[in-house]
C-alpha cells in the first residue's frame, strides 16, 4: 500500500516537471525566434534640397541591407517614411503615426526645429532618433538622451569658421542667419568661438524662416553703414541663391567685400551643379565649408550608381553629402539591430503605464507602446564602428558621429575649387586628414603651408582688409588737446584755428600709409587758459564723443581699461627735475678716471719698462751701475721719472733709446686721457642736488610741482601715496623756472615731476636745472581709439613703418632741433671710467717692442760670450787657469751672468788683449802661402 502511494506521488511529480519543461521550451522558442521584419521609421521633408537626396539614399540603403543576408540574417527592414513638410507640428503628428507602427528607430528629421519636438517623443517611447542633417549644437544636450547625430554638429563647423576668420586676420564680422533653432544656435556657437580668437560678431541680421526679397534688401542696405565687410551667411539651402543675387544687384559682390558661408551653400551647389552652372558666376569669390568625405572605392561606386540612376531618369536630384550621411545612417541602424538580436533575442513593445492625472500630451503618449529594448539598442548604436560611404562611422560621448573636418571651397569664375582642409586637431592644411595620417612625411611638410590662394569677389588673391570706415557720411571726429604750454606738441593757431604740432604731424603722416581714405575733422578740447585734463579727453573717446584722440597722450594702465591705444610713437616716463648746486669735493677723485685693473696695469708697465731699460743700459751707462741698492732704486724710479721733462738717467744704447721713445708715446696717451677724464669728472661733480631721485623726494616732505592736465598728478597721489597738499600745479615752462628758483622756502617747489619729452624741451633753455635720479616709470605716447577699433591696428602698423624709414626722427628734428636738439643732463651721468680694453692695443705695441729689443740684446750678449770662450781656448794663458776660468767651467750660467755684468769697454779690452797675445811670424817668412 505504501509502495502504491509512493508510485502515485512520483507520477505526479514527473508530469509536473514535464509540463514545466514544455512551457519553458515553448516560451524560449518564441522568445529566441528571430523576427522576420523590423520596422524602421523615417521622418523628414521630402521636397527639399536635402530631403530629395536623402529619400533616394535611404531607400537604396534599405534595399542594400535587405539584399545582403550577412547583415540581418534573414530579418528584413521595413521602411516607414513620413513627410514632415518643413513643419514641427506636422513632424510631431507624423512621428506619432510612425511610432504607432512599432518602429525600433527613427531616421531624421533634417530640420533642427522639428528634431527638438520629435526628440521629446522619442524620449517618452525610448526609440533612438538618428538625424543625418539636424546640426543644431544644443541637440547634444542631456535633455535629449535618445537623439543621435550621424552628421557633424555645427559646434564643429563654427569652430572651423572661426579659425577661417582668424586665419585671415579679420576681427569683426556681420552674421546673416535664419532665425530658428538651426540659425540662432549655430551663430551662437560661432560667437563663442570668435570670442576665443579675440574677434566678434558686430552685427546680426536674423531672417524669418520664410523671408522675402525686400527684407534682404533692407538688411543689406543697413549693413552698408557698418564698418565690417566680412559677411557670414548661415541659412537653409536655397536653390535660388537669393541673398547673393540681391547682394550682386546692390554692388556688394565686389571690392573689399568678403562672403563666407556654412555648408548650406556647398549642399545647394552639389544638388544643382552641373544642371545650373551659370549660378556659379553669381558666387564668384565666395568661400564656404563642405563636410569632408574621404575618397574610397565604396563611395566612388555609390556615386557611379547614382549617376546611372540619373541617366535612367529614376531620380531627378544630384547627390550631396547629406545623402551619403542618410545612407550610412540606415547601415548604422542595421548593424546595431543585428547585434541587439544576437544578444537579447526578439524585439518587443509594451504599453506605457503613465498615470491618469498626467497632462494631455502624456495621456496621448500613454496610449503608445514603448520599445522595451530601446535603451539597449541605443547602447549598441553608440558602440558601432564600421566603414561607410562617409568614412569610419563611430560616435563620440556627445552622441555625434566623429567627422573628418571640412573642405574649404572657393567659387572662382565657373568652378568650385578646394583650397584646403580643416580639422580640429591640425587646423588648416593642403592635404586632408586621412592622407597625412597615412604619410607622416606629407603631414609634416604641409603643416605650415595652410591654405591655397583664394580668389575674392574683387577678383584678386590678396586678402581683403575686411572693413572700411563706416559709410554714414560723417567724418571721424578727432579730439586734440588745446595746450597753452609746450605747444610744440599740439596747438591751435589763434587766427586760422588750424591745429598743428609734432603729434599732429605724426598722425597725418601715419594716415598717408593707411591703404584707404579716412575722412576726419580735428576738434580742440580745452578752454585755452590751461592745459586740459587728458583723463577726461580719453574718457570722451570711450563715451563715443570723439572717435579717437590725437596728441601727447601717455599710455597708462587706467586709460587702457576704457580705450585702445596705437603703437607708441614716443618713449617717455616720469623724471624728477631739480636745481643744481655745488657739492663737496671728493678727496679720492684723482683715482676715478681709471678702473682698478687699469691702475694695476699702469703700475706693472712702469716696473717692466724700468727693468727692460736697466738691462739694456747696464753695460754701457754708468748711471745704471753701482751698488745693488742703487740699481733697484734706478729700476723703480726710472719709468716714473719719465713723467718729468728731464731725467737724471739718460739712455745711451740705441735699443734703450728706441724703447724709451715708444714708452714716452704710451705715457703721453695715458696722461692725456687721464687729464681729460679727470676734468670731466670734476665738472660733473659740481652738478649735484640734495634731491637724488623720487625716493628722496618722497621722504623729504617738500612741495612737488607737476604739469596741469598731466597724468603725473594721479600717479603721485594714487600710486606713490603723496598727499595732495604737497603737489603744486604748474602750467608753463616759465612757471617751472620761477617755482624752482624760488624753492620751497619762498613758495616754490623743491623739484618737478614731469614726463621726459617735456623735460628735454624745458632743459634745452636752462643751465641751472637738471634731471636727478632715474626715470621711475616706463611709458609712451600713443593715439587713443575706441574699443576694438580696427583703425588702431592700421595706424600702429603705419607708425612702425615711420620708425623704420626714419620719418619719426626727422619729425622730431623738425620741431625740437631748430636751435639744436635738447640734451638731457643728469646728475648721475658721470663720465665712464677708462677701461683697460681701451688701451690694450697700445700696451701690446709697447710690450712687443720692449720684448724685441730685449731679445736682440740677449742674442748679442750670447754671441759675445761664445766668441770670448773660443778665444780663451786658443790662448792657454795663465789667466785661463784662474779661479774665474774654473768657475766658468763649473758654473756656466753664473759665468755668463758675470760676463754680461761687465761693462762694454771691459769686454772690448778683453778681446783686444787676446788679439795682442797671438804669435808673430819669424823673420824672412811670409804670413801667406
Mean pLDDT: 81
Helix percent band: 40-55%
Work out the helix count: 32
Enumerate the strands of the largest sheet in spatial order, edge to edge or round the barrel. 7-6-8-9-10-15-16-17
Structural class: alpha/beta
Number of domains: 5
The CATH superfamily of the largest domain appears as Response regulator
CATH topology grouping of the largest domain: Rossmann fold
CATH architectural category of the largest domain: 3-Layer(aba) Sandwich
- Main CATH class of the largest domain: Alpha Beta
Beta strand count: 30
Low-confidence spans: 1-7, 20-32, 354-361, 440-446, 822-830, 878-890, 924-929
- Largest sheet entry: 8 strands, mixed
Radius of gyration: 50 Å
Overall geometry: elongated
What percent of residues are in strands?
15-25%
Span between termini: 178 Å
Tell me what you see in this structure.
This protein has 929 residues and is α/β, with parallel strands linked by helices. The chain has five domains: 37-152 and 299-353 and 368-394, Response regulator (Rossmann fold); 154-294 and 404-436, Rossmann fold (3-Layer(aba) Sandwich), CATH 3.40.50.2300; 476-572 and 781-817, Periplasmic binding protein-like II (D-Maltodextrin-Binding Protein, domain 2, 3-Layer(aba) Sandwich); 589-683, Helix Hairpins (Orthogonal Bundle); 687-777, 3-Layer(aba) Sandwich (D-Maltodextrin-Binding Protein, domain 2), CATH 3.40.190. It has 32 helices and 30 strands. Strand 19 and strand 20 (499-500) form a beta hairpin. The relative contact order is 0.07. The model is unreliable at 1-7, 20-32, 354-361, 440-446, 822-830, 878-890 and 924-929 (pLDDT under 50). The chain crosses the membrane at residues 598-616, 655-676, 840-863. GO terms for molecular function: ligand-gated monoatomic ion channel activity. Residues 873-897, 910-929 are annotated as: Disordered. InterPro entries: ANF_lig-bd_rcpt, GABAb_receptor_plant_PBP1, Glu/Gly-bd, Ionotropic_Glu_rcpt, Iontro_rcpt_C, Iontropic_Glu_rcpt_pln, Peripla_BP_I.
Amino acid at each position: 500500500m505504501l509502495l502504491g502511494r509512493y508510485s502515485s506521488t512520483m507520477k505526479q511529480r514527473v508530469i509536473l516537471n514535464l509540463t514545466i519543461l514544455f512551457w519553458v521550451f515553448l516560451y524560449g522558442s518564441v522568445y529566441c525566434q528571430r523576427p522576420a521584419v523590423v520596422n524602421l521609421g523615417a521622418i523628414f521633408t521630402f521636397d527639399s534640397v536635402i530631403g530629395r537626396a536623402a529619400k533616394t539614399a535611404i531607400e537604396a540603403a534599405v534595399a542594400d541591407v535587405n539584399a545582403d543576408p550577412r547583415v540581418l540574417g534573414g530579418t528584413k527592414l521595413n521602411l516607414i517614411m513620413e513627410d514632415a513638410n518643413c513643419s514641427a507640428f506636422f513632424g510631431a503628428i507624423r512621428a506619432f503615426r510612425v511610432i504607432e507602427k512599432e518602429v525600433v528607430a527613427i531616421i531624421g528629421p533634417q530640420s533642427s526645429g522639428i528634431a527638438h519636438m520629435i526628440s521629446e517623443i522619442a524620449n517618452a517611447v525610448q526609440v533612438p532618433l538618428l538625424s543625418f542633417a539636424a546640426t543644431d549644437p544644443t541637440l547634444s544636450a542631456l535633455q535629449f538622451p535618445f537623439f543621435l547625430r550621424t552628421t557633424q554638429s555645427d559646434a564643429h563647423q563654427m569652430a572651423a569658421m572661426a579659425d577661417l576668420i582668424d586665419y585671415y586676420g579679420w576681427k569683426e564680422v556681420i552674421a546673416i542667419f535664419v532665425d530658428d533653432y538651426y540659425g540662432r544656435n549655430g551663430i551662437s556657437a560661432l560667437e563663442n568661438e570668435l570670442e576665443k580668437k579675440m574677434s566678434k560678431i558686430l552685427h546680426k541680421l536674423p531672417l524669418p524662416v520664410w523671408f522675402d526679397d525686400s527684407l534682404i534688401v533692407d538688411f543689406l542696405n543697413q549693413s552698408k553703414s557698418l564698418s565690417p565687410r566680412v559677411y557670414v551667411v548661415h541659412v537653409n539651402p536655397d536653390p535660388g541663391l537669393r541673398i547673393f543675387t540681391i547682394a550682386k544687384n546692390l554692388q556688394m559682390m565686389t571690392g573689399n567685400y568678403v562672403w563666407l558661408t556654412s555648408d548650406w551653400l556647398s549642399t545647394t551647389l552639389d544638388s544643382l551643379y552641373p544642371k545650373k552652372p551659370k549660378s556659379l558666376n553669381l558666387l564668384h569669390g565666395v568661400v564656404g565649408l563642405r563636410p569632408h568625405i574621404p575618397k574610397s572605392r565604396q563611395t566612388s561606386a555609390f556615386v557611379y550608381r547614382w549617376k546611372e540612376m540619373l541617366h535612367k531618369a529614376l531620380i531627378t536630384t544630384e547627390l550631396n553629402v547629406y545623402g551619403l550621411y542618410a545612407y550610412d545612417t540606415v547601415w548604422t541602424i542595421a548593424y546595431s539591430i543585428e547585434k541587439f538580436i544576437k544578444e537579447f533575442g526578439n524585439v518587443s513593445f509594451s504599453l506605457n503605464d503613465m498615470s491618469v492625472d498626467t497632462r494631455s500630451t502624456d495621456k496621448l503618449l500613454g496610449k503608445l507602446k514603448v520599445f522595451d529594448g530601446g535603451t539597449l539598442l541605443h547602447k549598441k548604436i553608440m558602440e558601432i564602428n564600421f566603414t561607410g560611404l562617409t568614412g569610419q562611422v563611430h560616435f563620440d560621448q556627445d552622441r555625434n558621429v566623429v567627422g573628418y573636418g571640412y573642405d574649404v571651397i572657393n567659387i572662382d569664375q565657373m568652378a568650385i575649387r578646394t583650397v584646403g582642409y580643416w580639422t580640429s586637431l591640425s587646423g588648416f592644411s593642403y592635404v586632408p586628414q586621412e592622407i597625412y595620417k597615412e604619410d607622416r612625411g606629407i603631414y609634416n611638410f604641409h603643416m605650415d603651408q595652410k591654405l591655397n590662394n583664394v580668389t575674392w569677389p574683387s577678383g584678386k588673391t590678396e586678402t581683403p582688409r575686411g572693413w572700411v570706415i563706416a559709410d554714414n557720411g560723417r567724418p571721424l571726429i578727432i579730439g586734440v588737446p588745446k595746450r597753452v604750454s609746450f605747444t610744440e606738441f599740439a596747438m591751435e593757431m589763434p587766427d586760422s584755428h588750424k591745429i598743428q604740432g609734432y603729434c599732429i604731424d605724426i598722425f597725418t603722416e601715419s594716415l598717408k600709409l593707411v591703404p584707404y581714405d579716412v575722412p576726419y575733422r580735428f576738434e580742440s578740447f580745452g578752454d585755452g587758459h590751461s592745459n586740459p585734463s587728458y583723463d577726461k579727453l580719453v574718457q570722451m573717446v570711450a563715451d563715443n564723443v570723439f572717435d579717437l584722440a590725437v596728441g601727447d597722450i601717455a599710455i597708462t594702465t587706467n586709460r587702457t581699461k576704457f580705450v585702445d591705444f596705437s603703437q607708441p610713437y614716443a618713449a617717455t616716463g616720469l623724471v624728477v627735475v631739480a636745481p643744481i648746486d655745488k657739492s663737496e669735493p671728493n678727496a679720492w677723485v684723482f683715482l676715478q678716471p681709471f678702473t682698478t685693473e687699469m691702475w694695476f696695469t699702469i703700475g706693472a708697465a712702469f716696473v717692466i719698462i724700468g727693468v727692460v731699460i736697466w738691462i739694456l743700459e747696464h753695460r754701457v751707462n754708468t748711471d745704471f751701475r753701482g751698488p745693488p741698492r742703487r740699481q733697484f732704486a734706478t729700476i723703480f724710479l726710472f719709468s716714473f721719472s719719465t713723467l718729468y721733462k728731464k731725467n737724471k738717467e739718460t739712455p745711451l744704447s740705441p735699443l734703450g733709446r728706441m724703447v724709451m721713445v715708444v714708452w714716452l708715446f704710451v705715457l703721453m696717451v695715458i696722461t692725456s686721457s687721464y687729464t681729460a677724464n679727470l676734468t670731466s669728472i670734476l665738472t660733473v661733480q659740481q652738478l649735484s642736488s640734495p634731491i637724488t631721485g623720487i625716493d628722496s623726494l618722497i621722504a623729504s616732505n617738500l612741495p612737488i610741482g607737476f604739469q596741469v592736465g598731466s597724468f603725473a598728478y594721479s600717479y603721485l597721489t594714487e600710486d606713490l601715496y603723496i598727499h595732495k597738499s604737497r603737489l603744486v600745479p604748474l602750467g608753463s615752462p616759465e612757471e617751472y623756472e620761477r617755482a624752482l628758483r624760488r624753492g620751497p622756502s619762498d613758495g616754490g617747489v623743491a623739484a618737478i615731476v614731469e614726463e621726459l619729452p617735456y623735460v628735454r624741451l624745458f632743459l634745452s633753455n636752462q643751465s641751472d636745472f637738471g634731471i636727478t635720479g632715474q626715470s621711475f616709470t616706463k611709458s609712451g605716447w600713443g593715439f587713443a581709439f575706441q574699443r576694438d577699433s580696427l583703425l588702431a591696428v592700421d595706424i600702429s602698423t603705419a607708425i612702425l613703418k615711420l620708425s623704420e624709414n626714419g620719418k619719426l626722427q626727422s619729425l622730431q628734428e623738425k620741431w625740437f632741433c631748430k636751435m639744436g636738439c635738447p640734451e638731457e643732463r643728469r646728475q648721475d651721468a658721470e663720465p665712464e671710467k677708462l677701461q683697460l680694453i681701451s688701451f690694450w692695443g697700445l700696451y701690446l705695441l709697447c710690450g712687443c717692442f720692449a720684448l724685441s729689443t730685449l731679445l736682440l740684446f740677449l742674442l748679442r750678449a750670447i754671441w759675445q760670450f761664445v766668441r770670448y770662450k773660443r778665444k780663451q781656448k786658443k790662448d792657454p794663458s795663465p789667466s785661463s787657469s784662474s779661479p774665474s776660468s774654473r768657475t766658468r767651467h763649473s758654473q756656466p750660467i753664473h759665468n755668463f751672468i758675470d760676463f754680461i755684468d761687465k761693462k762694454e769697454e771691459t769686454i772690448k779690452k778683453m778681446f783686444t788683449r787676446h788679439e795682442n797675445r797671438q804669435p808673430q811670424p819669424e823673420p824672412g817668412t811670409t804670413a801667406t802661402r
